[in-house]
Hints:
The complex is a heterodimer.
Chain A: E1 4-5, E2 9-12, E3 18-24, E4 34-39, E5 46-49, E6 63-68, E7 73-78, E8 87-94, E9 99-101, E10 105-109
Parallel strand pairs in A: 2-10
Antiparallel strand pairs in A: 1-3, 3-7, 4-5, 4-8, 6-7, 8-9, 8-10
Chain B: E1 3-6, E2 10-12, E3 18-25, E4 34-39, E5 45-51, E6 58-60, E7 68-73, E8 78-83, E9 92-99, E10 105-108, E11 112-116
Parallel strand pairs in B: 2-11
Antiparallel strand pairs in B: 1-3, 3-8, 4-5, 4-9, 5-6, 7-8, 9-10, 9-11
Amino acid sequence: xxxxxxxxxxxxxxxxxxxxxxxxSSGSIASNYVQWYQQRPASSPTTLIYEDNQRPSGVPDRxxxxxxxxxxxxxxSISGLKTEDEADYYCHSFDGINxxxxxxxxxxVL
Amino acid sequence: xxxxxxxxxEVKKPGATVKISCKVSGYxxxxxxxxxxxxxxxxxxxxxxxxxxxxxxxxxxxxFQGRVIITANTSIDTVYMDLSSLGSEDTAVYYCxxxxxxxxxxxxxxxxxxxxxx
Lengths: 110, 118
């Protein structure tokens, strides 16, 4: 089994760009696609990014995903931050047997 | 419109078993595996397991192996999750969710809060 490690929290000002990392503990980050979800309080998660860098229809292009093989990590970037982006963000990957979530990152926009 | 509607909140004593249901509509029930995800208060998402509604085959996360049973009733398009030997650490919101062919958890139930308390 592998683990996905995210920073517990990040904060940034409105209008700026923030990047949330997701580091895979074993095996290559490129071996399996990474997804990203947003979860607002008392709500179910929603997909922001699938297959490392693809956005579902309806997700603004302010949200983007990437992977970096050298650091064995994936990243979610949010540009032009809005106060409504304040939420928890989770990365997720699947190795054929286990569906693994990162621990989540709380984004504060202040 | 795809909907996953879960049963209501539960309060259980330590050692008991909880059964949560997830009724689906808006798609062919057997087309997608149904997953269950646990979220303890203030904590992250933890995958528990899945069932293939077509043949009832299951796969469970190691953490819950032996305590969780996930079943599907194709006559009423409903999936169930039983979690036994409940402890305080099982106090959490439990979600059912489907994974679409592109690999992300696309549709989620509204969540069911289970409180374990003596």
